[in-house]
Each structure stands twice: as structure tokens, then as C-alpha cells.
Amino acid sequence: MKKWAMNVFRPAIFSSLGDYNLFQFKKDLISGIIVGVVALPLGLAFAIASGVAPEKGLVTAIIAGVIGALCGGSKVLISGPTGAFVLITSAIINKHGLEGLAFSTFLAGLLLILLGVLKLGKVIKFIPYPIVIGFNAGIALSIFTSQIKEFLGLTIETNPQNFIARWAAVFENITTFNLWAIGLGLLTIFIILLTPKISPKIPGFLAAIVIIAGLAYILRFQLGITDIRTISDCYLIDDRFPMPQNIDFRFDAIKDYLSSAITIAIMGAIVSLITATVADGAIGEKQDPNTELIGQGITNLIIPIFGGIPSTGAIARTMTSVNNGGRTPIVSFIHALVVLVILLSLGPLSKYIPTACLAGMLVVASYNMSGWRSIVGLFKGPKSDFFVMLTTLSLTVLFDLSIAIEFGLLLAVFLFMKRVQETSSISLVTESIDPSAGTDLNIEEKIIIPKGVEVYEIDGPFFFGIANKFDEQMSVIGVKPKIRIIRMRHVPFIDSTGLQNLKTLTENSKKENIKVLLSGVNDHVRQAMEQTGFLDSFGRENVFSNINETLEEAHKLLPSLEHKHKN
User: Fold this and answer.
1) Does 3 map to a domain?
2) SS3 state of residue 417
3) Are 33 and 117 part of one and the same domain?
């Protein structure tokens, strides 16, 4: 049990500190401070966009930083609130309130741990690229839409959640725009884009919030311009670290929150593993995906206890760490400490940060998240991939991310089956087998297949999709053979439908006095046959390791079978 647990859960911090030294600590310290400062504007912006108090984003970053460092599977991944959860969080709050969000996040933590324990990390990473692009683009478009009100300084009495209703409200109230808000929002975007060109070491988001907050202070408190709306006008900032609260976890309530929890868990898993893969690739490392899922699960178990919002791997903060020399989970610890210091001094500072500034930052974040270049690339590729992306994007924007994820995963399954079925084939060989075409034959000459024997070659997984092909192939047979050889040397696995298909074929062949032999069955497929009892009914003596042995057996059986057919 202990060995099994160690194979599943291996936090990266233990392998990172074996040869840790002062030189690397200095790099991690600088990187952690920079990442912590970057986390301030993003944490505030994502929290407000999610529909919670701004400090909740910082609380989430602190807890995610500490737990991620202790339990994560990647050496450099920085976790916290991200744009991926903005839609999910706001939808849950509107439907179930803050208590529902806490319950859903806690339940999602349990699901993430379960995914890691079941070693599904590698599976989740292979969710089709068009679906991931569709999710990201849909979320980006929705985030952009949600920020139009603050970016333009509009006065809108209602706060519709529907995408179309939001745009309708914007156009209905477009005449209430505020020039100061528009100016500060545009200036925020300009600063974020310009800063890396002036000094790549200074984060654009940090420069924007400092400059815009200073400008807002002068305009509002020195020049008396009261049309500038700041965070303190909308929220009462609690600059204390929250005390733990009780999560009323009831089994009878799981059914009410399971869909939301699944959405959080799946989206969190996808974003974390993709971010970890990109980051670890940048430093030549390899993360443990199952440990990462368990670490994210533990994080999301603890976060709602302190009133935070869902957390996952954050690509912007992670790459900021990597680009500044961060190479160990110590960066995540330091980043959490910096955010804690900021939180404790946030109250007095919040009245200087315009909401238009946060809106401008989210506009840039949504642009970066949109992946429009990838969308253009998909448009130039296979139309089926572009259709899948467009469908996922439309469902995300027009309906609900929960629906989009459920449909997207279902679409991923169908795509997988379609691609496997396209690459799987069944061919009929009736005259000879050429050993030069990649084979299990141990001779160099062609083998002539005797009259009355047919060889069916299955190339690819023998699952329920290919089983239908097999049935169709069998149905077009003209003259029935005396011996039917199923060659399975290129079958990596077989599922229950494939086994049932073979069983039915065997039974039907027996009724027609046709002998069935299996050739080239690998150990994995043989084990599946053994476990299901197929070999007991089929007969182990009818299963052979290569085509040579199978054809030799066919030669021995032919005379008796021909005699039986004559009689």
C-alpha cells in the first residue's frame, strides 16, 4: 500500500531540494517576489470578474501557492485564480450563492484527487486540441463581454449573465459611457503592451496598476474628479487573512452540485496539466501528472474553507517565474508570502485602483487567452477539427461552460473512436502471405494459403467500432471456407464488444462446420481473453503465437474437415 501510494503521489518539492543551494535560492527569491507582485492585479481582477470580493482572489493565490508547492507534481507550476474559472464561478454563485460555490469547489477537490489516484493524468492531457482551443476562446470572449460595462464606464441597472443579454444591455445603455473610464482602460492596455518593450523584466500588469492607481489618486483626490470609480466604491476590502469556516458537506446535496464540481474539476485538470507541460518543457523537466491532479485536489479542498475561489495552474504567473530563473517550488512559497503581505495592506490602497484599470487588464488577459492564431490554423486544417472547435466555443459562450465541457468530452470520445476506426482495418487474404511486408513469419519465402482456408488480418484495436467492420466483412463472404484464421498480430487490445464479436463468430462458424483459429495474439489480448473466460469456451489449443504455427495446424485439420463436409 505504501509503495502504491508513493507511485501515485510524488510531490516535486522532494526531488527539487536534493541539491538546492544559495545560488538557486537567490533566483527563486527574485522570481517569487516578481510573481507575487504579478499575482496582485490578476488576483483582484479575476475575483471581481467571478463575482466575489477582490481579496478572495488573493486568499486563493496564497493558499494555492503554499499547497501547490508542497503537493504539486511540477517543480515550477504556480497555481491560483485564473480566467478559466471566471465563467464557472460566476455561474455557480448566481445559481447557488457563495455556499454553493464553497460546496462545489470542495467536491471538485475530491474529484481531482480521485482522478489522480486512478492515474488519469496522462489521459486528460490528450483531450483533443480543437476542444481545448474552443474552451479557451469561449471563456476569453465571455470575459471580454463581462468587462465592457466597467471598461466603458456604463451605467447598467441589471447584470444579465447571458451572453446575448449582456451585449443587448450594453447597446441599450451605450449613451451612459464615461470618458474617464474609457481613457483609463485604454491607457491600462497601452501600458501593459508597452512595458515589455521598454523593460522585459518589469511585468506589464504591475506597471499598469501602479501607474493607473497613481494617476487616479491625482485625478480624484487632488483635482476633485469624482467620475472615476475605484474598487473601494464597489467593494469593502477585508485586509485580514480569513478564519476557517465550516463546509456543510452533506451527501444528500451532492446531486445538486455534482455538475458544477465536475466542471471545476475537469477544467482545472486540463488547464493545470497543459500549463505544467508547457512550463516543464521550457526548463527541460517532466512533471508527474497524477501527483499534480492530487495536489490541485488538495488545494481546492482547502481553499473554500477560507472563502476562496477555485484554483488551477496559472500560465502567466508560471512563465513569469520560469523567465526570471525560478526552478523549484520555493518560488510558489515566496509568491504566496508576497501576496499575503499585499493582502494585509490592501484596504487603504484599494480606493486608488480604478475598476476600469482592472477591466483593461482583463481585456488583455482575454486576448491572450483567446488563441486566435490557433483558430486561424484550425480553419486552414481539416474542417472537422474547426467544426469541433466552433461548436465548443459556441456552447461555452451561448449556454454554459458545464454544458460545453460535457458536450466537449462527449465529442472527444466520438472523435477518438472515429480516428481509431479510420486507422483500423480488416483485410482478407486468400492466396499467399508476403513475408517482406512486415510480418511475424520466420521464413523468407511466400506462404501459400491452402484452398479452403481464409486469413483475416485485423490491424488496430479490436473494440466495438472495428467489431462492426468485422461483421460487415463476414457478411459479404461468397464461398464459405473450411478454416477461418483471425490474424491478430497488430491488435494492441480488445474490449468486451470485440470479445463478444469473436464469441459470436465462433459459435456461428461452428454451426456451419467452419473451424476458427487465432494467430499472433499478444499477451495483453490473451490476458483479456483469459479473464473473461473466452479461452475456456474457445479452446486454448486453437490460439497460436504466429502465422506459421497456425497454418501448420490448418494443414493438419483440413483432411478431416473436408471429409466432414463431404458427409
Assistant:
1) no
2) helix
3) yes
Same domain, 256 and 335: yes
Q: What is the pLDDT of residues 221-272, one digit of tens each?
A: 888 888 898 888 888 788 889 999 988 878 888 898 999 999 999 999 999 9
* Strands of 453-459's sheet in order across: 425-429, 453-459, 483-490, 515-519, 543-544
Same domain assignment for residues 467 and 393: no
Query: CA-to-CA distance for 517 and 539, rounded, in angstroms?
Result: 10
Cα 287 to Cα 281: distance, rounded to the nearest angstrom: 9
Residue type, 94: N
Q: Please report, as a single letter, which amino acid is at residue 418.
A: K
Cβ–Cβ under 8 Å, residues 317 and 78: yes
Query: For 41-96, how does the pLDDT look when each residue is reduced to its tens digit (9 = 90+)?
Result: 889 999 998 989 999 999 999 999 999 999 999 999 999 999 889 989 998 999 89
- 59 located within any domain: yes
The rounded radius of gyration (Å) of the Cα atoms in the chain is 30
Residue numbers of the domain that contains 443: 425-566
3-state secondary structure 205-235: HHHHHHHHHHHHHHHHHHCCCCCCCEHHHHC
Q: DSSP letters of 285-311?
A: ----HHHHHHHHHHHHHHGGGGT----
Q: Is residue 106 part of a domain?
A: yes
Same domain for 46 and 167?
A: yes
pTM of the model: 0.77
Q: Do 429 and 515 have their domain in common?
A: yes
Q: 477 pLDDT exceeds 60?
A: no
**Grid coordinates representing 404?**
460545453
Closest to 377 measured CA to CA, from 124, 129, 135:
129
State how far Cα 344 lies from the chain centre: 34
What's 381's DSSP letter?
S
Q: What is the CATH number of the domain that holds 452?
A: 3.30.750.24
CB 275 within 8 A of CB 314: yes
Query: Distance of alpha carbon 557 from its chain centroid, rounded?
Result: 54
Cα(329)–Cα(78) distance, rounded to whole angstroms?
8
Shared-domain flag, residues 221 and 300: yes
The residue among 507, 71, 461, 142 whose CA lies nearest residue 298 is: 71
Q: Which three cell numbers stand for residue 233?
A: 466604491
Burial level of 126, CB count in 10 A (0-12/13-18/19+)? exposed
Final residue in a domain of this structure, among 383, 417, 451: 417
| Whole-number Å distance between alpha carbons of 231 and 354 | 6
567 confidence band (pLDDT: 50, 70, 90) = low
Question: Comparing C-alpha atoms, which of 260, 49, 272, 261 is closest to residue 142?
Answer: 49
For residue 2, is it within any domain?
no
Pair 112, 296: CB distance under 8 Å: yes
- Residue 547, helix vs strand vs coil: helix
Regarding whether 433 and 411 lie in a shared domain, the answer is no
Number of domains comprising the chain: 2
Q: What is the 3-state secondary structure (H, E, C) of 138-187?
A: HHHHHHHHHHHHHHHCCCCCCCCCCHHHHHHHHHHCHHHCCHHHHHHHHH
Residue where the block lists cell 484464421: 485
